[in-house]
């Protein structure tokens, strides 16, 4: 079995996530390589989708490009709070006819089939609508002890998108606009079997991560594990087997650069993997009282080359056109070279945000 040093494993991960000096230049091609952009409303500096895109594409990226790709060009689509390349639509509709898999939800849908048909007929007649614009004609409310209790329209739409009967056509602010899938997805989709779709998704996920575990704790929305695809490897200082994209083992080029990462960035979002490969400790602290925060409300991990060297605690004040830097935490003592590179990236961030003045 191939044995990698942790530096080799880190470089594989950084390269796969398009965070080397050889930047991508096209948004859609970038999302295709990453497989997804996670939607999150927190915008202490910028929303996650925009931060992730900026950290790869640089100041040439503008949020309007994402809206254009999703709502006009239809080269990207939204599904399950993730932006994905439209070329992957069929992979996420595999097995849709069996949704929802939870029997209580299936029973609720059967009892509310008239409600389901009302929604589809209304969308067919009127086109894209937000959930607020759709009347609730359910005969039995959705019962839950959580936030979804009696949110019948939202629950039905979530079931229908999982079944491939509706699609998200775009957003108005944070609200999703719903439409019929034939007006959003490509025509004549060829839906693979669940088994084939799972294999392809695992292969694509491994290429985007570079290195991952075959199995592990399941997480909602998007797994971190990749099954038996790729090549088995060991990484020094870590336990057990990893899987690596075979093409990554053959790549020797690595041109480092410095980047600020969103807390939801795929390079570091799996905190256990970040500790194993990068010796990087991180907790998103926006839900902690201010007095108990170590790094800040929405601290951005700082990548320098193949190391995560610190965190940037900053807040963007858009009305005042100011980027307020509360602290730059050094996990690894910065050399002059690292300090200059971090300052350069801070200037790039401020320029992209406005431009904005930096207050340190």
What does this structure look like?
The chain has helices at 6-16, 27-34, 48-57, 63-72, 89-93, 103-111, 113-126, 152-162, 194-209, 246-250, 271-278, 336-353, and strands at 2-4, 37-38, 76-79, 82-85, 129-130, 167-172, 175-179, 211-212, 231-235, 242-244, 258-260, 300-304, 307-317, 322-330, 357-359. It is an alpha+beta fold. The longest helix has 18 residues, at 336-353. The protein has twelve helices and 15 strands. The strands form four sheets. Strands 11-12-13-14-15 form a five-stranded mixed β-sheet, with helices on one face. It has a four-stranded mixed β-sheet with strand order 1-9-10-8.
Secondary-structure content class: alpha+beta
Overall number of strands: 15
Going across the biggest sheet, name each strand in turn: 11-12-13-14-15
- Molecular shape: globular
Radius of gyration, rounded?
22 Å
Q: Give the helix proportion (percent range).
A: 25-40%
SS summary, helix count: 12
Characterize the biggest β-sheet. 5 strands, mixed
Beta-strand share of residues:
15-25%
Average pLDDT, rounded to a whole number, is 95
The helix/strand series, from N terminus to C terminus, equals EHHEHHEEHHHEHEEHEEEHEHEEEHE
Poorly predicted segments: none
